[in-house]
């Protein structure tokens, strides 16, 4: 027997065709609430069999007869696996090439629409995929130490966030240049260690004196040698610039955690998040008072993002997160034609990212239409970050 399973995510129900005759012989209605890649999802399966049992995945399966309990458990595993597979199909349909998790084989006894799918790449195909797979495991461990309910209570007592978007608009008006989001970054996978004597608070304070409108703080430890403790230390030190939590977000839990550590904004990467996930996270961030910088790399991602309501900041990364090659003409290409018209019409702030080292680079992306730039390597490597900022823009942009 086949059944259509409505998958409910971010307020939208999507049908999944599942094939499993044994489940319908055992039960009449199943309600499963589980996280798929960290996002809450409801899956309901109904049939016209006379049984009235309701089984929840989080509860004991003791309501089923002992003779059928193992079969029901396996059928539930099959359904969960198929929902994961459907999520992958949804991502692929939106042009997302980064797989969120390592491929897994179908549960024993599976027979259905995905049975012929081959998983011949069981290792990451690029650095972004490697980071994403590791991040999924890392977040699972962090959740055990910092449960979501505890984070929600901490957020209630946290001080209000600072106006990240407003700070960018004011700086752009004040200087006539793109507003600077200066990045506190010790290392990167492509460049290695950028600064040996790395003091995040000292660097942040120098950036602020040099005229940065906002700061971006790397919180990934394994690949960028950052940490949430850096974000917290910079906020606690009295730095007034609004702070962007630069993290690879794959789970709503990370949004709450960033808020408790002093973030005023978070990064959402379109290359690893579906439209529904971005929409949900935007609403969550608005609820928590956080701004969102939604990052794109190519025309397809730009088109997706422009179709999502509520986005104020769009970052164009000139560095391919798959190959890590940089081409600043990517910014100009993505802001031409219809995309540029829509951005101007919606009064979005476009943030140019990566490959910006000289005043000519700044002038190039400004002419393309950016009103802010996110810069890390070219200024963090300087002995004097204040002078590094002045050198980047070709003049002093500080308040003094």
TrEMBL record:
A GO molecular-function descriptor: phosphoribosylanthranilate isomerase activity
Keywords: Amino-acid biosynthesis, Aromatic amino acid biosynthesis, Decarboxylase, Lyase, Tryptophan biosynthesis
Pfam families: IGPS
BP GO terms, sorted: L-tryptophan biosynthetic process
Reactions this protein catalyses: 1-(2-carboxyphenylamino)-1-deoxy-D-ribulose 5-phosphate + H(+) = (1S,2R)-1-C-(indol-3-yl)glycerol 3-phosphate + CO2 + H2O
EC number: 4.1.1.48
Domain of life: Eukaryota
Segments forming domain Indole-3-glycerol phosphate synthase: 128-390
Involved pathway(s): Amino-acid biosynthesis; L-tryptophan biosynthesis; L-tryptophan from chorismate: step 4/5
HAMAP family according to UniProt: IGPS_B
PANTHER family on file: INDOLE-3-GLYCEROL PHOSPHATE SYNTHASE, CHLOROPLASTIC, TRYPTOPHAN BIOSYNTHESIS PROTEIN
Name used for this protein in its record: indole-3-glycerol-phosphate synthase
Species of the source: Raphanus sativus (Radish)
